[in-house]
Design a protein that fits this description.
The complex is a heterodimer of chains A (356) and B (289). With 356 residues, chain A is an alpha/beta fold. Chain A is built from twelve helices and nine strands. Chain B is mainly alpha-helical and 289 residues long. The chains are: A alpha/beta (356), B mainly alpha (289).
Chain lengths: 356, 289
């Protein structure tokens, strides 16, 4: 939206000024840009921010002597507002997988500098990423209270989750169509490799069955595990690290890896971010195998650097979505399908929630 | 020179030069107008322009014709109306007690009334969960006493949202009513009693009409604030209660559809303003009568 019309003479002036600035930028590229006192990293906060601090942020501060200031939560709308107003507060931000693709489509991202970020130890299909830096993976898993069902006697599939006779008690799922449509199809007997493209009508029909048994549609990661701890629900879905932290703190919970929806976590640099160069350096630290190992040991979100597993503690290996016992049981989320259908699905979801 | 003129003169001379003379009041008025214009009207204008981006009314068309947004608008009004009624029913007696209490009790009462303001939303929400949850204090007590066999769902539904919202919004209702009650001349009540009116008719024909402006102001405040509630319904509604602010947020943050979000916001703003004008009319008629 243009509120003010810029006279053409001023435009021409700006054009020359822009060229002059590009010229200086080119000259400066040969050497490293000056170090700012700090960069701003926007992440999802909570337990995850603590883990990021102890792994990547401290490592970056040690290497470059630049302080990492953190903000949260992850917010694609704020990213758009910053880039459009030119007042960019973040150097690097975490972002949801579908929102990352949307931001790339809208031209809100700075390209990754592969001269700085080395992805050679990553899986082949991720090495040529242009804007979205793949960091690690996480899984929306099923979990249950071992007070309600002793370990080994709990639900082991989404069909079990839907079976309220065999496994009675209130349940909790995320307040979002993402993952839930997939879970519904899996519960209805759809083979994992046939989940996409999602048969939406069939998924919502299956969801009708479980709706009366959902006590809370959770909104935040912290809520998902807490509802089981507080016994508001006997089983639910959550991002695997949230259950892990609760279990580590002594909560009587069990994670069921079967039919979990596994997905990639992403980091991006907002287009035109000041100190973008140091943002690239920060992303380079995040690809570091050892730092990814340290991070995974805290919150069980493993890195995508294939060498990072060497640094993961043996006793924690089974808590990782990428562990050989767990990985084949899970289903990869198709972020592209959600990019194309997300908006429609969310409207349909709200309508479905409101339907009596 | 008369004394009053001298005082006026002295006051004038103490003022900043631009504020002196006949232009003074205008200049003083300019500041808040500029403030509101810059920080409120301009953004609202931008919001409106955003909602008609591309020169079409497509966003408004979608907002009005799609049954989802219509349903959510109605649901938002329904909840706002329930919250306003509950607040009014609770606030009126509270305000009355406060208006007749001794200064010390007024102070204590006001502190309790203001407590929810000073408590973080998360603490407030978790406090309600401890009290009203499935394993909450209330359910445990009722189960223990044998009143109920199954825990009752008191939160994570509309009831929970209403409880949480009334908790926060009660002061907005109490204060206008309380101040209206303070202004009531108690001699009028005595006079009515002296003329043989019953307690009920003193209340209905004298006290209630005289406190009506406070009731209307409180109602307008609480209702309009309710329309924009977001976090409380999200956390205490268990995801089952959807108010319009939740959908606007989704459009802004998740789908980057600012045009559509702006259209929804404009509609909400127009409705809130209409409601305010209506109540204001009603209020004016009450004061004249």
């Amino acid at each position: 939206m243009v509120l003010l019309r810029v006279p053409s003479r001023v435009k021409a002036g700006l054009f020359f000024l822009g060229n002059a600035m590009l010229g200086t930028a080119a000259a400066a590229q040969a050497q490293e840009p000056p170090k700012p006192p700090q960069i701003v990293f926007n992440d999802s906060g909570g337990d995850m921010q603590k883990a990021m601090r102890d792994s990547f942020y401290n490592e970056f501060e040690k290497r470059f002597g630049i302080r990492v200031v953190t903000t949260s939560p992850v917010d694609a709308g704020k990213l758009k507002a910053m880039v459009e107003s030119g007042n960019i507060e973040w150097t690097v931000t975490e972002i949801g997988p579908e929102e990352a693709m949307l931001a790339e489509k809208e031209g809100l991202l700075e390209p990754l500098d592969h001269k700085i970020i080395d992805l050679s130890d990553y899986p082949k299909h991720l090495q040529d990423r242009k804007y979205i830096m793949p960091k690690g993976v996480y899984t929306t898993v099923m979990g249950y209270s071992t007070d309600a069902f002793p370990a080994g006697k709990g639900p082991t599939s989404w069909a079990d989750f839907w079976d309220v006779k065999k496994f009675p008690g209130p349940r909790t799922l995320r307040d979002s169509p993402i993952d839930n449509l997939e879970f519904a199809l899996l519960a209805d007997g759809v083979a994992p490799d046939k989940v996409y493209p999602i048969d939406v009508a069939r998924a919502f029909k299956k969801l009708d069955e479980i709706k009366p048994h959902i006590t809370v549609w959770w909104k935040t990661g912290a809520q998902s595990a807490q509802l089981l701890v507080d016994k508001e629900a006997v089983m639910g879905s959550a991002w695997n690290g949230r259950y892990f932290v609760a279990i580590k703190n002594g909560a009587p919970l069990k994670i069921e890896w079967n039919q979990g929806m596994i997905k990639e976590s992403a980091f991006v640099i907002p287009k035109g971010a000041k100190d973008a160069y140091w943002g690239q350096k920060m992303l380079a630290v995040i690809t570091d195998a050892k730092a990814q190992g340290i991070y995974a040991n805290i919150i069980t979100y493993p890195g995508l650097n294939l060498k990072s597993m060497e640094y993961v503690k043996p006793e924690l290996q089974t808590f990782m979505p990428t562990h050989p016992d767990n990985l084949p049981k899970q289903v990869w989320t198709d972020a592209k399908w959600w990019l194309d259908n997300g908006k429609d699905m969310n409207e349909r979801w709200s309508k479905w929630i409101l339907a009596k | 020179m008369p004394a009053s003129a001298q005082i006026a003169e002295r006051r004038q001379s103490r003022m900043i030069p631009v504020l002196r003379g006949e232009q003074g009041p205008v200049m003083v008025g300019l500041l808040p107008v500029a403030f509101l214009g810059l920080l409120f009207l301009l953004p609202v204008l931008r919001l409106f322009l955003l909602s008609v981006e591309g020169g079409t009314l497509a966003h408004f068309d979608k907002a009005i014709t799609s049954d989802l947004y219509l349903t959510v608008f109605i649901e938002t009004f329904r909840i706002a109306a329930i919250v306003t009624c509950c607040s009014l029913l609770m606030a009126y007696p509270v305000a009355y007690v406060l208006s007749t209490a001794s200064p010390r009790w007024v102070l204590i009462g006001l502190v309790f009334l203001m407590l929810p303001f000073w408590t973080s939303i998360l603490v407030r929400t978790y406090a309600w969960m401890i009290l009203l949850g499935r394993n909450g204090v209330l359910n445990q007590a009722l189960l223990g006493a044998g009143v109920i066999k199954q825990p009752v769902a008191l939160i994570f539904n509309t009831t929970g949202v209403v409880i949480g919202m009334v908790h926060v919004l009660l002061p907005y209702m109490v204060f206008p009513i309380y101040s209206a009650m303070l202004r009531v001349n108690r001699d009028l009540l005595l006079a009515a009693e002296g003329l043989g009116a019953s307690g009920w008719s003193v209340f209905r024909r004298i006290f209630l009409p005289l406190t009506m402006p406070g009731v209307i102001a409180g109602t307008a405040l609480v209702f309009i604030l309710s329309l924009g509630f977001y976090i409380t319904p999200a956390l205490l509604g268990g995801g089952k209660v959807i108010m319009i602010a939740v959908l606007i947020e989704q459009q802004v943050r998740q789908f980057l559809e600012w045009g559509f979000a702006a259209a929804l916001s404009c509609l909400l703003l127009v409705i809130a303003v209409l409601f305010y004008v209506l109540l204001n009319r009603l209020g004016r008629r009450e004061t004249i009568a």
